[in-house]
Sequence to fold (651 residues):
Amino acid sequence: MSLLDAFDPRETGSSTDGILSNRGRFGILALIAALAVLGPVASAVRPFWLYLLIQILVFALLALSLDFVFGYAGLLSFGHAAMFGTGGYAAALLITHVTANALVVLPAAVLTGVVVAAFIGWFSVRARGIYFAMLTLAFAQIFYVIAFADLPSTLLGVETVTGGDNGIVGLATLETFGLLDLSNRMNYYFLTLGLVALSLLAIVRLANSPFGRVLQGVRENEDRMAFIGYDVRRYKVIGFAISGGFAGLAGGLYVPFQSLAQPQLLNWTLSGELVVMLLLGGLGTLWGPMLGAGVVVLLEEQLSGFAAWEVILGSVFVVVVIFAPRGIAGALVSLWEDPEDAIGNVRDALANYREKVMK
Amino acid sequence: MFVEFSSVLRATMLGVQLGMTLALVAAGLTLIFGMLDVINFAHGSLYMMGAYLGVTVSAQFGSFWLALLIAPLAVGVIGAVIEVFGLRALYGRNPLYHILLTFGLAVMIQGLVVEIWGGQSLRIEAPASLAGTVQLGPVEYPVYWLFVLAISTLLIAAVWLMIDRSDLGILMRASAHDTEMVDALGIDVSKVFTGVFVFGAVLAGVAGVLLGASRSVNPGMGFGVIIETFVIVVIGGLGSFKGAVYAALAVGLVTAYGALIAPSVTDIFLFAMMAVVLMIRPNGLFGATEAA
Fold:
């Protein structure tokens, strides 16, 4: 298989007809309910855990948005940080200059994500596969440099817009006409959980809709879809824009929570980490990438106390990719289906590895 | 905006020099892609290892020349370990996983570098024989930079001759073109693969030592250079050696001129150039056209 044949998610993507079986839907409902209970419990044990949970939820949403275009439409975006970051910056600018009302800020973040994604997508869908990935990367880096060098302030002739290297700091918390006190972290957690759950629902519906089926068709055989008469490019751009909206929402939730918008949110390392989350979790399963996001955030947070934490984190990626090719989701599914075989599988994997290396 | 002629000339020379050195890194990346179908995210880390090992060797033995010899070879050994114990287990699987593997390795190597050498910026001592500047027409130019230009250009020419003319080069191109057929002819393709990866690693190591004495050596340089090199390789067309060299020159020049006009946004020029090239030629300048 050649990499130039486009990144081919067929092998790894879900092959089932429905995106989620009824059992899967039930599982997700149960998970959301569990998270709703977990929040208060975690907060009671150690308040810091609640902070981690919010962080995980935000990145889970971001991973979900990427899985929608990558897993279902086969578009590997290496620039999803662009939508996340611009969504975040839009939120930060609104909060500093206009209003901190969540009903304004969050929709604006979504809209920014959609617009930026439509712009990047419109240019990028001309290329396919790895070249598409590199175009999205290029556009995202342009946004990064714009924020880093604070280009808007030079153009507008004002002192500062994006705050350059330091970013926009000391943001006020979101408010909702005084209905919900979002400076209370528990409330913020439930707001995030609710929005993530709604987004997941929306994406599952979208993926199962005729529109989602066309995207899947494009992934499987782009030329054939074009012959049938679908405007493939248009579908790709729209799919990309929708995904960008969810990424923007993630940014809009993340920035007020951190009370900071910095250029690092737009940098390619974040896009790269996101791809790692997807592959680590299990591509095209929607729940796998969310799990992957949780694992990566937890690992980074827990390991950062150690001296050589990057070495450990990198090793985890390496070991998972060699020994658990279908990601954590794949490993869990096979464990669920045949727990007794797990030891045998490990032995097989090791033998397989030895054989390949010794070749 | 008025820029003096001599500074334009100087920027041109600097750009060509930077381009040729980046071509060393990009050549390895594009060869590895062309043959192994691997996008090597750890390639910038190999370049960084070259620089850091160069720092250590030159400090230990007080010789830049020894560093230029030993550090790239050591990087080659690291490359061999990565290929044999990492990538080999993944051939035949979705190439996406190579990204995850090499991304993990890049994170790992960055952590290791901070652990061993610390986070501060270091420098390789350029040899005393190459110190000072020479007057080239209106431009005063450091001797060391001329040396870097010369040695990079020589190496690139040598690599080109090897790929284009030698039996080894024919074997490499044949393996890239049709791995199964070469395998069927009784050649151990897996050894060719290891060889190509090690070769690419050594080239990156050389570039690391060369630029380590003129730019600073720091833990961020690996991730910094990989993006520059991706841009080069993509503009040139993935897998094309010729394309990588031309694109490296273009990127070097744009970087040097950009520093003259608007230093803080040079990167925008680079990415815009890549975007424009890809929109006109979706597979890069010299990329395979049949690729979907």
About this structure: Chain B touches chain A through 58 residues (CB under 8 Å). The mean pLDDT of chain B is 88. Chain B has one domain: 5-280. Residues 5-36 of chain B form the longest helix (32 residues).
